[in-house]
Amino acid sequence: MIVYSGTISKFNNDVDNGIIADLVKLELEKRNINNNNESEFRSWDNSLLHMKNVLDVPEINKDIRVAIEYQIPATSKRVDFIIAGKDENEKSNVVIIELKQWEEAKRTSREDIVTTYLAGTNRAVTHPSYQAYSYAKIIENYNEYVQKKDIKLYPCCYLHNYKEKYRSEIDNELYEDIIKIAPMYLKQDTIKLREFIQKYVSKSDNGELLYQIDHGKIRPSKALQDTIVSMINGNQEFYMIDEQKVVFSTIKKLVENAISTNEKYTIIVEGGPGTGKSVIAVNLLAEFRSLMVNYVTKNAAPRNVYFSKMRQGNFKLNYVKNLFKGSGAYVESKKNDFDCLIVDEAHRLNKKSGMFMNLGENQIKEIINASRVSVFFIDEDQIVTTKDFGSIEEIKTQARLLGSKIYSGDEYRLTSQFRCNGSDGYISFLDNLLGIRNTANYDGFDLDYDIRVYDNPTLMRDKLRLMNQINNKARMIAGYCYEWVTQKSSGEEIYDIELENGFKAKWNFNSTNTWAIDEDSFEQVGCIHTAQGLEFDYVGIIIGKDLKLVNGKVVTDYTQRAKSDASLKGIKSKGNYDLADRIIKNTYKTLMSRGQKGCFVYCEDKPLNEYIKNKLDSRSQIRTK
Q1: How confident is the model at residue 36 (pLDDT cuts 50, 70, 90)?
Q2: Cβ atoms of residues 279 and 226 within 8 Å
């Protein structure tokens, strides 16, 4: 989605008239896209004036089209500046320019990472050339027109305020590979940037390229479970951007340090649903595949799916078994048996191991002890059972006791959304709707995320079934409010979930560990235990009677959970009703953020159904049924 576009002539005039920043801000507001208010406004005023100076020369064709703030498909990231047209040989090209107001920066020993002063402190960030490159690669991956027509994207960066005396900090042998791919231009390089643009775009194409980029068909988002074999084989399926790349490069360097010095490190990476925690985890697994490394998760569902995919990819059984482990596998491990343990969904770790929780002392302690480098990917808002023991504070406590140096905080916090069609606003909406926290951007979605509320669960299932016929990537998931009758009695006429309008369904079969990818599993309904850690194109969420609307407020009722549900075990005896409330709300947030393209919702509580409809209708963002 392009926020501002026009000819170079129009752009120059809007800059000269002092209205360019106002026009960009107005368009963002119209589309319900969050921006950083005054600081971002100043950056447009400043940076776009410099771009005008680059383009406002007689030798540049003023009918060439430019675009500002292009929102990259399936992400919440935006490209600063695009110039599109044809070269002297009539080849269609796109120049992508990342604009920076930096005056100085410092080199690091981490791959493609520098530090600079941002938001009141020195921060580790991606090198501007890497940022421009990664944005270009994501556009190539997602835009079908760009791929089919073999449109070439040429990324670069322009640091128009950067002081020449600091050039060597970011233009040196450490970064030469990425700078070759995405050239960097500083304050004194204006003429060189102009020449770079003219080399690839010297003629107008009357806006055809920008139109196709903005309106062309978007290729389906990749699901991690579908690309894991390729990634382990060393192929780059996901281009990590911004904070993802900072985290990856930092961990990579720490593993190298730990092996050479025998020091211990513990890294805590925080991030909500869809921020790329699992993508980084699997990229690390692929990067360290020649070392003693495990991917660790307490959740059996993603582990089983990855295991199945790897076996289909002809990896040997023992190799796969040794690659993916449950969180209780380190009870008897010795100190530093492993080079790196990558713990996904660390909030789901238990205190003790074994079926009866009678083995070991502390899973977090055992994991840190067993590895030189332990990496914990965590989201405390996805704690969904009373057994979930993983917390940032507990990880830090055990790391200190074991002499492992801790890395955590802002530099290790993932914030950008890569699921839910890249909509940060949708996640904020869920937080506000469920009462998890008050959020500033709860009433609008950044992109066209397909959320629908159904009065009829049968109609919801019928629509999802059609979606599933495309590529087997749609599933129904429910809160655990229905007894699993068919676990013991599997007759054809016996169902676990019976709702209005003749809706009948069974929980997912207990005869398979891979419900999320099985070809014949659509008719079965999954739960939090079979869906968490995985993603689909579309999900249909059945919200049971454990969530309802009372006096205009969304409240929980733990008594409506199925008696066989162990998620809330011990709540009544301990009187920990706040924890029950948190678990139920976390469960539905987790379920409602599984869909990459859309989420359909049916609530047993009719007032809640109407409440969600009204919240969505107030923004005219979605279709309701």
Answers
A1: low
A2: no
Distance, CA of 374 to CA of 266 (rounded, Å): 5
Q: How far apart are CA 377 and CA 533, in angstroms?
A: 11
Count the neighbouring beta carbons within 10 Å of the beta carbon of residue 47.
23
> Under DSSP, is residue 333 helix (H, G, I), strand (E, B) or coil?
coil
519's tokens: 């070809």
Classify domain 224-414 at the CATH class level.
alpha beta
Check residue 440 and give its pLDDT: 53
Neighbouring-strand partners of residue 498: 504
Distances (CA, A) of 492 to 486, 501, 508, 522: 9, 19, 14, 16
Long-range contacts for 569-578 (Cβ within 8 Å, ≥24 apart)?
569/385, 569/386, 569/387, 570/386, 571/386, 576/386
The CA R_g of the chain, rounded to the nearest whole Å, is: 26
Find the helix or strand (DSSP H, E) in which 454 lies: strand 450-454
CATH of domain 420-617: 3.40.50
pLDDT confidence of residue 235: 87
pTM: 0.89
Query: E strands within 119-263?
Result: 121-126, 152-159, 184-186
pLDDT in tens, 254-283: 999 999 999 999 999 999 888 889 889 999
- Which tokens hold the place of 126? 């991606």
Q: Please choose, from the candidates 167, 158, 224, the residue with its C-alpha nearest in 3D space to the C-alpha of residue 192.
A: 158
The CA-based angle 462-463-464, given to 5 degrees, is 95
Contact 136, 155 (CB under 8 A): yes
- Whole-angstrom CA distances from 55 to 18, 156, 200, 208 are 17, 15, 14, 20
Q: Each residue of 215-239: pLDDT tens digit?
A: 877 766 677 888 899 999 888 888 8
Phi-psi region at 274: left, alpha or beta (left = phi > 0; alpha = psi -120 to 50): left
Which tokens belong to 285? 């697994």
Q: How many CB atoms lie within 10 A of CB 616?
A: 21
- What residue spans define the domains of the chain? 2-215, 224-414, 420-617
Q: What are phi and psi of 407, to 5 degrees?
A: -120, 115
C-alpha–C-alpha distance, residues 340 and 338, integer Å: 5
Phi, psi of 272, rounded to the nearest 5 degrees: -80, -175
Q: Which of 218, 216, 231, 276 is nearest to 92 (CA)?
A: 216
User: Which uninterrupted H or E stretch holds 249?
Assistant: helix 243-261
Q: Do 245 and 134 touch, CB atoms closer than 8 A?
A: yes
**Residue 437: which residues within 8 A CB-CB, separation 6 or more?**
431
DSSP code string of 287-316: HTTTSSEEEE-S-HHHHHHHHHHHHHTT--
Cα 211 to Cα 213: distance, rounded to the nearest angstrom: 5
Check if 224-414 and 420-617 are the same fold.
yes
